[in-house]
Design goal:
The chain is of the alpha+beta class and about 375 residues long. The protein folds into 3 domains: about 90 residues, Trypsin-like serine proteases (Thrombin, subunit H, Beta Barrel), CATH 2.40.10.10; about 100 residues, Trypsin-like serine proteases (Thrombin, subunit H); about 100 residues, Pdz3 Domain. The chain has 7 helices and 22 strands. The N and C termini lie far apart (about 125 Å).
Length: about 375
């Protein structure tokens, strides 16, 4: 009997222990489920605010770059005032549109000169859709840059971070934001296709070291920023190479190295205070056609540095024959082959500097010293 009783107690203890263990496991499972549910409820807002599920790190980088840069990009529309011939009523006629970006918190907006060229009025629409009438602060047709100013509150003006263009390399990623065909806040991406390009502005002046990229640039992108992978400004989109006028995979941007020195001058003086020689030169196409060795002096401005240095202009003799003036072949020993090269070389100097010009005069080389003055 004692043995039987001991066995019954042992079996009862076993089943009691098993039942207790099962209850404990259920409680742990319930606790874990509650904890998990609580964690999920707590993490829902975090997941909603973080990366979208399924996007790659590269996509997240591009999305983040656009969201940071877009508030600095604006949409510019221009119009001209015309008087009706019959009614004599003055009408405001839409002229065109383009892009721009915020330079500082003082209301300065940067765009291309050709975007606002000949416009009577310009309106700037910021990223928050507010529209402001703009005044022209300064322009540089020779660099295709212009500065506008709007009277928007400081908190609406979000300046774009300014980078560098001197250290760019072919193959780097680039991002263009603008308003092609009037479609605002449009992002296109690509790479730096080439560097050191020389392009002509719509005013016929050369811009050296332009950036060539394959980011889609279309009408309306002009004046918008070209950004590097850090979201910093490296150029201002200005031109496309395409017979149809639409993106063909070749776009050009004014390097930020030019923007950095031009914009402060436009804000301060309303123009670029470049030095000048005071001469009128033969166009490059004519120089090549006539197989000349450099830019030919067609005329000398009275009272200019060139006049003071005795430069000779092209003229006709008493028999009506053309007598060639001086041909500029070097400045401070640097070879000059064209009018554009002379213009670009002058950018390395300031008013008051003295330079040595090497001239070809009557088939012999002549050197003259000339002191540069400010462009009027």
């Amino acid at each position: 009997m004692r043995i039987l009783l001991a066995l019954l107690l042992l079996v009862g203890a076993f089943f009691a222990g098993a039942a207790w263990r099962n209850t404990e496991n259920k409680q742990d499972t319930a606790t874990e489920v509650v904890a998990r549910n609580g964690q999920q409820q707590h993490s829902l807002p975090t997941r909603a605010a973080s990366a979208r599920e399924g996007t790659t790190p590269e996509e997240e980088h591009t999305i983040s770059l656009f969201e940071r840069a877009a508030p600095s990009v604006c949409y510019i529309t221009t119009s001209v005032v015309r008087r009706d011939f019959w009614t004599r009523n003055v009408m405001e006629i839409p002229q065109g549109s383009g892009s721009g970006f915020v330079w500082d918190r003082n209301g300065h907006i940067i765009t291309n000169y050709h975007v606002i060229q000949s416009a009577s009025k310009a309106l700037v629409t910021l990223a928050d859709r507010s529209t402001w009438e703009a005044e022209l602060v300064g322009s540089a047709p020779e660099k295709d840059l212009a500065v506008l100013k709007i009277k928007a509150p400081t908190n609406k003006m979000i300046p774009i971070p300014v980078g560098t263009s001197e250290d760019l390399r072919v193959g780097q990623s680039v991002y263009a934001i603008g308003n092609p065909f009037g479609l605002d806040q449009t992002l296109t991406t690509g790479i730096v296709s080439a560097l050191g390009r020389e392009i002509q502005t719509e005013s016929g002046f050369p811009v050296r070291d332009a950036i060539q990229s394959d980011a889609a640039i279309n009408p309306g992108n002009s004046g918008g920023p070209l950004l590097d992978s850090s979201g910093r400004l490296i150029g201002v989109n200005t031109a496309i190479y395409s017979p149809s006028g639409a993106s063909a995979g070749i776009g050009f941007s004014i390097p930020v190295a030019v923007v950095r020195w031009v914009v402060p001058e436009l804000i301060k003086y309303g123009k670029i205070k470049r030095p000048t020689l005071g001469v009128e030169l033969l166009e490059t196409s004519d120089i090549k056609r006539n197989q000349l060795e450099g830019p030919l002096v067609m005329d000398v401005v009275k009272g200019s540095p060139a006049a003071a240095a005795g430069l000779r202009a092209t003229r006709r003799d008493e028999y009506g024959r053309i007598v060639l003036g001086d041909i500029i072949i070097a400045m401070n020993a640097k070879r000059i082959n064209s009018k554009e090269e002379l213009i670009l070389e002058l950018e390395n100097y300031k008013a008051g500097d003295e330079v040595t010009l090497t001239l070809l005069r009557d088939q012999r080389e002549v050197k003259v010293r000339i002191r540069l003055t400010e462009t009027k």
